[in-house]
Backbone:
């Protein structure tokens, strides 16, 4: 352990729950962040700062001016550049020890298992239901813990899925909502700071999962509303008839869900 390492991570090392051993585990962890947007931005910033050894970022979009209101990984000069490139530069500046892997693509049934398989843990900060269900199914099948987050308007929610130990996303929401029922952020709006709160909760959960700390959001959905500033918790259970993690699963490999997101 050199002095620079001790200094950089001293505020973690001071915590008895982390210490030097825990910090080394963080430095060896491989974490995938799906979506370098509103949730992926704060999550990836804190995970890079925490010294996660290998940080994968999945996003096929370019930075748009309308993203900058909440997607704090990117700057004004990045408009038009690939989000993964913009993010990788910012993260390397925060912590050059982190290996950032740019996955400048859309997750699909054809590539999700290979990509998810290269990491210990996945954070889902995607903004659409097809990817959310695809990532849930892939993580359950691959046995990888998954930290889920979602935001809309003044609302946010987060939960942590540990395959084989508690409910998965499909246990709670067996099927995606029909097209047109749930609007997207680009249609309904989002308070930027809500993305910061939920993305930071996701990063906290990821660190705890890596360290094996108790108290993760397993079997619990934490929901917040920033307008009246309330937080509440909903307990959720594993569904024995869940199509992917139940007793007789019918989903044995990930598949692509085709439908238009949000309200037309
Ligand atoms: Zn399930």
Residues:
């Amino acid at each position: 352990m050199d002095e620079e390492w001790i200094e950089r991570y001293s505020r973690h090392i001071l915590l008895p729950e982390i210490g030097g051993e825990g910090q080394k585990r963080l430095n060896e962890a491989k974490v995938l962040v799906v979506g370098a947007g509103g949730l992926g931005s704060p999550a990836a910033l804190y995970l890079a700062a925490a010294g996660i050894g290998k940080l994968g970022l999945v996003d096929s979009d370019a930075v748009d001016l309308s993203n900058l209101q909440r997607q704090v990984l990117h700057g004004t000069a990045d408009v038009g550049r690939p989000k993964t490139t913009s993010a990788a530069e910012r993260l390397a500046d925060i912590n050059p020890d982190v290996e950032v892997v740019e996955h400048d693509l859309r997750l699909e049934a054809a590539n999700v298992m290979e990509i998810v398989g290269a990491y210990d843990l996945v954070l889902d900060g995607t903004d659409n239901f097809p990817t959310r269900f695809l990532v849930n199914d892939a993580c359950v099948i691959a046995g990888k813990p998954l930290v889920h987050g979602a935001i809309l308007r003044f609302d946010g929610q987060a939960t942590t899925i540990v395959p084989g130990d508690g409910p998965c996303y499909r246990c709670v929401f067996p099927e995606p909502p029909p097209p047109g029922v749930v609007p997207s952020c680009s249609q309904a709006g989002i308070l930027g700071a809500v993305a910061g709160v939920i993305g930071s909760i996701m990063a906290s959960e990821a660190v705890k999962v890596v360290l094996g700390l108790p108290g993760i959001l397993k079997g619990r959905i934490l929901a917040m509303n920033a307008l009246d500033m309330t937080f509440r918790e909903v307990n959720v259970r594993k569904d024995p008839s869940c199509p992917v993690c139940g007793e007789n699963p019918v989903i044995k490999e990930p598949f692509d869900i085709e439908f238009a997101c949000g309200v037309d």
About this structure: Residues 192-211 form the longest helix (20 residues). The first strand starts at residue 30 and ends at 34. The CA atoms of residues 221 and 234 lie 5 Å apart.
